[in-house]
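Researcher: Next entry in the queue.
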Amino acid sequence: MTVRNTSRFADRFVRRMLRWCIAQLDIPRPANQRDAINEAWFRDRRSLYSGHCYGNRIVISINGNGFPVASSWCRAYTPATGGDVWLYDSIEALVMVTTHELGHVQDRRLGHFGRGSEARADAAARCVLRLFRESKDDLVQQWMAGGAATVTVSLAEVRERKAVASLARWQRKLNIAQGRVRKYTKRVRYYHKQKAAP
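Model: Structure for this entry, 198 residues:
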């Protein structure tokens, strides 16, 4: 699994947190690549938090500010029994959103993705958040071992990361485009020869 991290959280912290969340959901090592989690991307966000699951790829976006917050504004994180789920800091949001999106991957692996998937992912996220809170200080210390939870990143560094990612994306598109140009150049030459033949 590829872990991309362009968030304010340290790489080591994010990887350890992700492994812990996967263990809590008891997601087994897949028998084939189709069921594997291919990529997890952690990034910063202007609004508080969001998550997306695209097949076997999850994207987690967290803002480090604005906590604590009651998440009743977001249906996906409101308990079925009513009331709010309070998220007291960005680490709790990181754990909850990560688990929610992993729940979607698990649903897809089991063939349950679709109707009811949001409710199952909500339930998994709330359960894992409770487990996290029971040992929060110890877990955060374990994940931080050898460094801090967050990294102070300058605006210039953020822009550099985005520029590097954009360059890589456009280089991939360029390689694809160049391949298509070669393909259709050969095809056009072939038809020109056909027309020129007596």
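Model: The longest helix spans residues 155-196.
Researcher: Noted, moving on.
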